[in-house]
Amino acid sequence: MARAVSLNHGIALSSNGSVLFASSSEAAYSWDYDSSTMSATNNRTLVTVPSMLLISRGSTSNVDLEAADITSGHSQIKAFNLNNLTSGSYDYNTDGLRLGWGLRNSVGVAEHPTTGGIWSVENSVDQMMRDGEDIHEDNPGEEMNFHGFLNGTFYAQQGQNYGYPWCFAAWNVSAIPNHSNLTVGKQFAIDPTDGQSRNDSYCAAQVPPQLTFQAHMAPLDIKFNNSGSEVWVTFHGSWDRTDPVGYKLSLIEFDEDNPVPKATSLTAATDIFANIDNSVCPDQCFRPLIHQIASHILNEASLKNLGLSSKTFALSLLSFDSGIWCKRFLQRYDFPMIKDVREFGIAYRIRHLALNRYMMLDFNQPGPKEKEVLHTLLDLILESYNGQSNRKYNRDSKNISILSPSLCDETSVNWFFRNSLSKCRPKSRIHGLSITIRLTLSYLLLDPTHSYLAKMADSSNYDVTKIYLFEMPFSTICTYEERNHDFVLNKEDLVHILNFWNYHLCGSNQLSYRYMADKLAEKNRLARPWSEPLQAFHINFVPTRWIGHYTCIHPLPSRRDILEEIQTCGETWDVAHPMILDFSEDISGDPSNWWPWIFKSMPAWKMSQSPSRYVRGMAAYLPLSFEQNVAKRKGTGKGAVNLPQMAVTETSGALDKLRLQGVIQPLPDQEKIPGWSRIMFVLYRPTQMFVLNALWTYFNDKGALGNMPTISNVLFEELRLCWDMHMQHNQWILQQAVGVDEMKLLMARTAKLLSDISSLGLTCKQVAEIEDNFQGSKDLQWVDIDYAYAYEGVLTPGGKVMLGRFWALDKVQLFGLSNVQQTSNESAETDAGHQVEQEPALDLGVIRGDLGSFVFWAENQ
User: Where is each Pyrroloquinoline quinone-dependent pyranose dehydrogenase beta-propeller domain found (predicted)?
Assistant: First the structure.
């Protein structure tokens, strides 16, 4: 057993925890270690890729001239393979793999977790002279060095000389005599010592540091995070400088396997823990060791007890100015929007208190305690994904995890969701910030796997009349204000729509929509939170692929109580097949050049002063397999019925899918939360004749040009025949000279032709090109459309969830939607019968005049 007094700070465990390593100034040791008994046995004198032990040996004095001799073993880093160790011990001077020499005192050594590169931090000399001048205040700099790999990767400079005892890295270049060829980090020569003649040219040929730190900060250790994107360095602090420096923990950003800062940077390290006043150091300021211990204390009471155990600990840990609060804060949360490291203490304690209130809270009529919680939730949202000031954002967000409620904890987050759900009742008023936060976190309420929120789902959490505008005038989610040339968001209606979908997607007693949500959850096709700071969101980043559904009800009930009972047609279906939206193409230029004139009178179509994104694409259904559902709807006594067979699915050819055209526009911040967008689009199905005309015009005039698939002679001839027959039948229809059966046969033949052409692999973009070639989008006529639906709503912050209303479009659009009236029972039934007769494969499953709500969420991209 080694005497404790002889051991230095070097101590480590093997990867399996069974071997303890320690060192003295003369040797390295190992013991067999048993953590259960906390005992170590079988001491061996030794002189980690697994089974590799790295040993850094420093100098014997400030300027150790023996280190200039490579055989001395002084000021070197070596690696020893423990698998090759016999009963004896290694000789450090002659054995092992040398990673570098001329390294004065490389106290901290670390392996990059992904590349295996070996890095060290070095304490440089004190009391330095150059050309007879004392330059020790700001020179030389401390170093971060790279030493190659132990995993077989080649590194040309592995084992080379890093310059000590003759060469050192410049920090304050202007303070160095004869510095004309020097820059930060470049090596320069110390005054000739012991008759040796070493100059700056010699030093320039030695291995330079990767980064240089301020003189005398004394880096003691270096640790990478798990991804290798950051490295942490502890600085013990100076002793021979007029103004003390160091006494802190700092972070350096890495990109792949190299530091992001340049080798000449004076600001490579970002301070994480630092003292407010270094002038009282070292006696009355913290050093990182205390904070390293405190960082492992999770319980706040235990931390307080540690702080009260001594005056030194109290000054270091319990003061608001203590750096421990920064570490504790960043262990739990993303980087806050604060201007001074001294603010971490207050921010941490306020947040801890706000998020751990266990009493009942009312967020709809909030008092001081509720407002404190609401503003804390707001901060968590605004600060999500925040990284250090010198990087864009973190890949993962601690705040997002905190914002997700838990089944087992009655925290403020749980109370927020419980309270803000249960108070969305008819004629109730909801606090504005509470609504805004709830909508921002809407992705949680659309996830059936989230047990706590699924448990809270209930039909009493919303007013179903707002879903269908029952006995209400028509209105859109966003209202255009001429005075401000911008949109005002109706958040109260929107939160009722959100709660409706929370109930139908997540409620345990629901049928088709819940089944759809569960099936999508099995495929991990769930709603997701935003993935970068909301301040960085732009409408150009809106995802292009969405999945979700709409709700409809027909015939429209005449009484509110019936509406509340029925809720939606969806719950009478065996399964609700989700709809897929694909914004496959962005459209640039003046919308008057492409937006169909027949849709222009829609009240939702207004332009703001903000830039807009115009999108075009297609929509279809995603078929879900299902077992026959024989469940009865509550109170109706009616069994579930099958949906009509879908004519448009995700696997259908592009010619068969619904067309989509729309606009996305930014909305003003809501309660300080940015990243909101308004979306309005029209889904329509072109007539068979329109598609046939477009194909005939394109292939007859152009043939297979550009990247368009080649059409065979057989298909081309069938296309010509079908087109010719349709032209003839159009004339016959006018003369009432064609029978229904003959027309059905022609439509079936045409449908097969279109399917065959689609199977050639036409893309959505190619179909748009074909149709535009026949007739520009702006010239679209009602005779070219079987049916059309307008969708208008909002993309919640970050652009991952879409909520709003849809309604059927008809020729009444020519006169404005103000003429649209809700359908009575009698007229709805008549229209429904007419609809089924004329369009037996109606893909949207609703009749003309229908109005309802929708929800979509972005697919993982």
Answer: 6-289
The count of domains in the chain is: 2
Best CA proximity match to 670, nearest among 796, 574, 564? 796
Instruction: Return the pLDDT at 590.
Output: 64
Q: Is the pTM of this model over 0.85?
A: no
- What spatial distance separates the first Cα and last Cα of the chain, rounded to whole Å? 58
Residue keyed to tokens 């997540």:
506
Q: Do 30 and 95 belong to one domain?
A: no
Residues 125 and 226 in one domain: yes
Most confident by average pLDDT, 32-36, 481-485, 501-505, 760-764: 501-505
Q: Please tell me whether residues 95 and 213 are part of one structural domain.
A: yes
Q: Mind listing the pLDDT tens digit for each residue in 400-444?
A: 988 887 655 556 777 777 765 555 554 445 678 889 999 999 999
- Please identify, among 46, 63, 81, the residue that sits at the C-terminal boundary of a domain: 46
Residue 20 sits in the same domain as residue 56: no
Q: What is the pLDDT of residues 253-296, one digit of tens each?
A: 998 789 999 999 999 998 887 887 888 777 677 666 666 677 77
- Residues 16, 17, 22, 27, CA torsion sign: negative
Which residue intervals of 81-217 are DSSP H helices? 200-204
Q: Which residues pair with 620 in a beta bridge?
A: 580
148 and 235 together in one domain: yes
Average predicted confidence (pLDDT) for the chain: 78
214, 249, 275 - which closes a domain = 275
Q: Which two three-digit tokens encode residue 568?
A: 């939606």
Classified as helix, coil or strand, 688 is: helix
Residue with the bigger pLDDT between 370 and 672: it is 672
